[in-house]
Design brief:
mainly alpha, about 70 residues
Length: about 70
Amino acid sequence: MELTRKDLLKMSVLGAAAVTLPLERSVNASSALASRIAESALPRPFTTAFTKPPVIRPVRSDATTDY
């Protein structure tokens, strides 16, 4: 079997991708775990009930728009 320059480049690109992709995934997974906030630092949940504001009526209207 004879190797050409083109074949050698293809194999090197595939080899580099095979090495890089698992490494990239492990780096992303470890940084996702490190960026979590401690439960003691989380804000308290809302204590008052949500009140729905009244609907605002338009001041004036024309054929296509309400102002």
